[in-house]
Every structure is written in C-alpha cells, then in structure tokens.
Design a protein that fits this description.
The complex is a heterodimer of chains A (535) and B (253). Chain A has 535 residues and is of the alpha/beta class. Chain A is built from 16 helices and 19 strands. Chain B has 5 helices and 13 strands. The N terminus and C terminus of chain B are likely disordered. The chains are: A alpha/beta (535), B alpha+beta (253). Chain B: It comes from Methylomonas subterranea.
Chain lengths: 535, 253
C-alpha cells in the first residue's frame, strides 16, 4: 500500500524553514503531530513579551521533536543497481517507456519518482574509479576502503590470509548492527550471493575473490565468504538470503541439482545449504522457481535461495531457464513478507547485480532490461511497505562508460541508430551510428585494425573486415537485436567502470538527508540515523 | 564467425579441416564388416578420441595494418578431441590449453582451459548467446555446422581403407571448401578451406573408441574457474589481462 504525501503549506512546513530544511521535508512529514500547529503548546494567548518569547521557543522545540521522529525508520531497504550510472537510468527510462508504447523520454522509472535525491561520490580510498567491493562496503559499513576489500578497512593487505588480522580490521556493517538490535535482516541479489555487493553485508575479508574455501590461499585462516554467511555471529542470523552462487555452498563431491554434470566448489566437504536448514528453525532452502513459489512467508523464518550455480540469469534470459528462477521483484516480495513479521523492523539489501555484467560485455540491451527489473522490484517494495516507517534508498555502486550520444529525435528507438525524423544521421566517414555506445570495451570495431583470437597459436590475427573504412557500415545491422554489442572507442576485453558520480534516490523517513553531493559512505550514516543507530 | 567463442569453435571446425586418412593406412575400397553409416544431419555420434593436425598458410584477412608483421606465420598445430554425448574436450598439448563443452539438459556450458595456469574461464549459455557464439551440440559434435554440409555438394559414399567416407565440396561466400566425412564415426577426416592466398587444412591422424583412447585429457577438476561475466571485475589479475589480450578484439557487424 502506498502512502504518498502531498506537499502542504502547513505551519510545520513553514517552521521547518527555520531549520533550513527544504519544503520537501514537508513531503515526508506525517502523522497527527505534523498537522498540529507548532505554536499551540498552550491554549492561552501569550500576554507578555516573555510569554511570546517562550511560546516561540516551544514551537521550535515541538518541531525539533517532530523532526527527530521524521528521521526514525522502522525498516530500511537499500536497492543497489550494480553499475547503474545516470546514463543507464536515462536510457532505461526511455527503453521502458518505448517498450510500453509510451513517450520514453517522459517516462520515469519507479524510483525516479522519489522525492529526494543526491549525487554519490564513488571514489574509494585508493581508487579514482572503484570496483564493487569498496563501494558496497562504503554503503553498508560507513567507511571508504580499498579495491577488493569486503567490509574491512583500508589498512589491510589485499591478500591478508590471517583471520585474526582480518578481524582486527573489520568494520561492523549495518546488517550486523541491525541483527544486534533484534531486527530481521535480508539480502537479495541476482549475482552470486558471495559476490562483492551482497557479501559486504555479512562477511569480512580482504579479497573479494575468496568466495569458497577452494579459492583461499594455502594456509589461510580467514573464513571464505560463503562460510561466513553460515557462521554469522550476530543476532539470530540472516532471515533472507536469495541469489545465485549455489556451487560456492556445495561440496565438490556433490552434483548440482539443476546441472548434474557440474559439482560444487567447496573442498572442505561441507554442504552449507544443508547446514542452513539444520541450524535454523523454520528454515527453507530452495533452488528453483517451484520451490520458491511454495515458500510460505508466514511459516518461514530463515530462507536461503540459490537459483544458479553462479550468477542468476539476465532478466532477458530468465524465461529460458529450465528450472525457473524468480524475478528480482518476486524475490523482493518474498523477502519483505518474511522480514516484516518482526515488529522491531528489518534491514534489507536488494541488488540488481547483472546490470554491471552486461555493461562489461558491452551489451546495452541486457543492462537496460535488468535495470527495468530493478525498477519493478522497487515498485513492489513500495507497494508492500509504508512510507511512514520504511526508508527506501536506490543507488548504484559505480557507473560504467556508457553514453547516450548524437541528436536523435524524441521517440527515436533508444537501441537504434541515431536518426532525425527517421533519417539516419552519419558520422564523418559517412556511416550511421548508434545512440548508445561505450567509451571502451569489447565493442571496439577498429575496422581494418581489428584483431581477433587466433586459436592456432593463442594469439591474435587480423579479423575479417569487408569495409574500407575505420568503422563498419551499420546500415543493414539490427542494432536493436538483444545480442548486439554496442560500439566502443577503446579496445578492451571488458568494458570498464566509470568514475563519475551516481545518483541516490530516497523515499520515506530519513530521506530528506539525501541531498547535495554526498560521499558514498554517507549512505550508511543516513540508514543508521534513520534506524536510530547513533553509534 | 568473427567473435571470440565462435572463433574458438571455428578453430575446432577448422582444425578438423583437412583430415586425411592417414590413420586408416593405405586407401582401400574394401568394405569392413560391422561398420555403421551415420547420417551427420541426425547423428548421435559415437564416443571417441581423435588426434588432428591443422596447417595454415597465408593470411586469412589481408589488411594494411601496422601490426601486419606480427600476423601468424604458416604453422602446424596438433590437437586432440575426446567426444561423447554429453561432453567434448579438446586439447593442444604443445600450447597447454584446451576447451571443454558440456551438455546439461538443454544448456551448453563452455570452459576455456589454461592448463599451465590451472585456471579456466567459464561461459554460461547466456554469455555465448550475447557473443553470438552459442553453437548447437550437433555442430560441436560433428566439428562442422551441418548447415555447411547441406550447402556443399555431396558425393557418394565411398569406401576407403575399409571405412565409408563422403566428400563435400563447393564455394560459400568466397571460400572454397572440401570436406571428407568419415561416415562411420560422424567425424571429418579432412577439412580444407581456401580463401585467396589463405589455405587451411585439418587432417585426422588417428581415432579410437573413447574407451580405447591412448590419451586422456588433462584433468581440470581442481582448476580455479572464472566466470566470463566476472572478467570485468578482475582488471588487475595478470592471468585475466593475458587472456583478454589473447582474445583479441571481437565484434560483429
């Protein structure tokens, strides 16, 4: 149920102006107290200067009290679009609108309708352009750290094998603090559950790649990421853990249930999926759509769902999965219904983890359709929650070198070639070009200079090229094909992250704190403040 | 066929080009008893192990590139394949690399194996689709696209050294093809393709029923497996840097 507020020029809103808050705070203001005139602390009309002064002071105190309540959230949901830069949001907004037959440019994704937003500076402690580990750590632990670090501080060595050293340099996460306070917690991702962004919530390790024990160096005493989920020491453990990465939880002696030719990756013989069921009451482990659909949130207190050996399918390919996989919105729905049983509240992170992967591959279609799936999940979350008690944040960990270029007409297909009134524009070589492209990546065409893999010697050889120019002629190419790889300027095996700011969208109690240009680690502090975690 | 995985596949195919009947000894029109003829178009090919040699000469794509001097010189590569109904493994012993293709239900899982590094890169089915490189299992099993065979002129089945073979030939998109298929094992014994000055020949040296193979593929069970989707997050990994440089610049237009 949505409880969206309409801005009102109430006395409260006016009074808030005293505190230098924007009128948008009034949008968040709610409850009966917000409707009371702030200066009606007493029914008696002041009759002296001193009384007038006192009444004025009281008005301020009342409003300050109200404002503090506005900051209090019972629940916090953090949505992360991995790699969802501003250009990705814009292109997705257009694509979603065009797919629905609407004006794409005027369309808005669900979270773009939130009333508060800010820029997030994504540089990590040691990187101008960051990877997902330190950026996600910033969001859930409140600090900036180095590349590859999972909720450990920047003083740790990237390949620190010691459990004791790692513990000393670990930084408590908001999920852990929530568990300490008796809240319920959950993490949902379309990436592997042991991948950087979900992992930062529950694990502490210097190297994001140590997802299973078989990934650890010889002699390491630090626990691998998957194991840390099962040996989580705070509260009563996570209530919801949904994503991919099943093989990291299964022993290498056990065949995968969906792909029997494949085995788990654990060398220690532990089946963490079984351990999940045995160590929690009212717990379930599911790995396919039918099992997931059968989970009754009212009777399930701890749900583990691992729907692929590695990452879950792209949203565009999900329909092809033989065993079936839930959508991000479906997982969000199930998670909230389990978590909201706790009257104390909950913390939930939901990650659209594969936007990033599609961009790395230079494939805009899958990046944008996964972003639509994120928007659908946010919409579902807002429907299931009350904006009086639930803060929802939507942001990205970093951007990608993804651009929207040229001067296409309004309504031109966003995945198509740049055209004005249907007439394709040409570059200085006289060739058509697409609106979407990348600054680097596998989409480099390179014309006659392009190389390709030479299996004869594992090197490269000149690639086939029919044209005579430095770019291919796209005149007869269907660039709206889901498998089309957009062109890139600089040849790289994988397209890279980008260093510009990303956006934070916020709605609910505490959302008013999201404004201006914030360092990314401020996101943690917004959430902590909203949940009343002062320290 | 210009993208990465397709190139890998092509190599399989191309490697198969030019199979000769060396392994079969002196040509003979004598028909062997108990030899089944398999239709490649509907084949459920028998499990086997085989060894091939691929020889390339000339440049496949002649460009006026500043790096032209780096292009591969004529060379010969020997390689092996192990094939059954669910798994195909190739290996180039001299280069210490190989490929693994597995069929699991309707899903094809592909790994590129780097034996010296004890690491592998895994391509999920969606990755292969995105790279426009998702081959059919039949194509992988035959080492040739059945569609290609259908487009070439097919001769009659002849018996050479006691084995049934059929020769396919013709020109497609400027490339002259000659394929000789061993019809008893649904495997090319010769694949030749010529395009301008470029010539490639792949020749079968020997084949065995899988259970009687004198070679075994290098075990990759303990290798660290990296998802293709994760390469972008391993930008500082020396192995990933090396592999990506080898992959070249692939694009499809």
């Amino acid at each position: 149920m949505t409880h969206r507020k309409t801005p009102k020029t109430t006395a409260l809103a006016v009074a808030m102006g005293v505190f230098g808050l924007s009128l948008s705070v009034g949008v968040v203001a709610h409850g009966d107290k917000a409707k009371k005139p702030a200066n009606q602390a007493s029914d008696q009309v002041p009759s002296s200067a001193a009384e007038w002064f006192k009444a004025g002071q009281n008005a301020v105190l009342v409003n300050k009290k109200d404002l503090q309540e506005l900051r209090k959230a019972k629940n916090v949901i953090l949505f992360v679009g991995d790699g969802m830069g501003v250009s990705t949001v814009t292109a997705t907004r257009i694509l979603e609108g065009q797919m629905a037959g609407r004006d794409g440019e005027f369309n808005r994704l669900s979270f773009e309708r939130f009333s508060h937003m800010a820029h997030s500076v994504t540089a990590s402690a040691n990187q101008q352009t960051s990877d997902s580990a330190p950026t996600a750590t910033a969001m859930v632990a409140g600090i900036k750290t180095n590349d590859g670090a999972i909720s450990v501080d920047q003083s740790i060595n990237r390949l620190e094998p010691s459990a004791a050293v790692t513990a000393a340099k670990s930084v408590k996460t908001i999920l852990e603090r929530a568990e300490e306070r008796g809240l319920s917690t959950g993490v949902v991702s379309t990436a592997r559950f042991t991948h950087a962004t979900p992992a930062v919530n529950y694990a502490h390790i210097s190297n994001r790649d140590w997802e299973a024990d078989s990934n650890l160096p010889a002699g390491a005493t630090v626990k691998d990421i998957a194991r840390q989920l099962l040996e989580f020491p705070y509260g009563d453990g996570l209530e919801v853990a949904l994503g991919g990465g099943r093989s990291y939880f299964m022993p290498n002696s056990l065949n995968d249930p969906e792909y029997p030719s494949q085995k788990g990756r654990r060398a220690d013989g532990r089946d963490l999926t079984l351990e999940w069921i045995s160590q929690y009451n009212n717990s379930e482990y599911v790995w396919n759509q039918a099992q997931f659909d059968a989970v009754n949130p009212k009777k399930t207190d701890h749900l583990l769902g691992l729907f692929e050996r590695s990452h879950m399918r792209y949203e565009a390919d999900r329909k092809d999965d033989a065993a079936g996989e839930p959508s991000l919105a479906e997982m969000t729905d199930k998670a909230i219904k389990i978590l909201q049983k706790n009257k104390k509240g909950y913390y939930l992170m939901v990650e659209a983890g594969r936007i990033d992967h599609a961009h790395h591959a230079g494939n805009a279609y899958r990046a944008l359709t996964d972003t639509i799936a994120l928007s659908d999940a946010v919409k579902k979350a807002r429907e299931l929650t009350n904006d009086k008690d639930t803060l929802i944040l939507v942001t990205a960990d970093h951007s990608h070198v993804f651009t929207i270029a040229g001067y296409p007409s309004r309504g031109n297909p966003i995945l198509g070639k740049t055209a004005v009134d249907g007439v394709e524009l040409k570059d200085s070589l006289g060739l058509p070009y697409t609106t979407l492209s990348y600054a680097n990546g596998p989409g480099w065409t390179g014309g006659m200079q392009r190389k390709e893999f030479n299996p004869a010697n594992e090197g490269t050889v000149a690639a086939a090229y029919d044209g005579g120019k430095l770019r291919p002629d796209l005149a007869s190419v269907d660039t709206e094909n889901p498998n089309y790889l957009q062109e890139a300027t600089v040849p790289m095996g994988s397209e890279t992250h980008a260093g510009e700011d990303v956006a934070i969208y916020a709605d609910g109690p505490g959302a008013y704190l999201v404004r201006g240009t914030l360092e990314q680690n401020a996101i943690y502090h917004v959430m902590a403040d909203a949940l009343g975690m002062r320290k | 066929m210009s993208n990465r995985s397709r190139q890998i596949l092509i190599h399989l195919i191309v490697a198969a080009l030019g199979l000769t009947l060396t392994a079969c000894g002196t040509p003979s029109a004598q028909r062997k008893a108990n030899v089944n003829i398999i239709d490649p178009a509907v084949a459920n090919p028998p499990a086997l192990a085989a060894e091939f040699v691929t020889t390339r000469a000339g440049e496949e794509h002649r460009h006026e590139s500043p790096h032209e001097e780096q292009q591969a010189a004529p060379e010969t590569v020997e390689w092996r394949i192990w094939r059954d109904s669910r798994q195909i493994v190739t290996e180039r012993p001299r280069l210490g690399i190989g490929e693994l293709w597995q069929l699991d239900g309707q899903t094809i899982i592909h790994r590129k194996l780097y034996h010296a590094d004890r690491r592998a890169i895994e391509f999920q089915h969606d990755d292969l689709k995105m790279l426009q490189s998702a081959p059919s299992w039949q194509k992988l099993s035959l080492m040739l696209d059945p569609q290609l065979l259908r487009q070439l002129s097919a001769g009659d089945i002849e018996w050479v050294d006691g084995y049934p073979v059929r020769e396919y030939s013709g020109q497609l998109e400027g490339t002259d093809w000659r394929v000789v298929m061993r019809m008893d094992i649904a495997l090319p014994s010769i694949i030749e393709r010529r395009h301008g000055e470029f010539f490639e020949r792949t020749e079968l040296l020997a084949s065995y029923p899988l259970s009687q193979s004198p070679w075994r593929p290098t075990s990759a069970d303990a290798y660290e497996i990296i998802d293709f989707a994760d390469l972008g997050d391993k930008e500082t990994d020396p192995f990933v840097i090396k592999v990506q440089a080898q992959m070249g610049h692939e694009h499809h237009h």
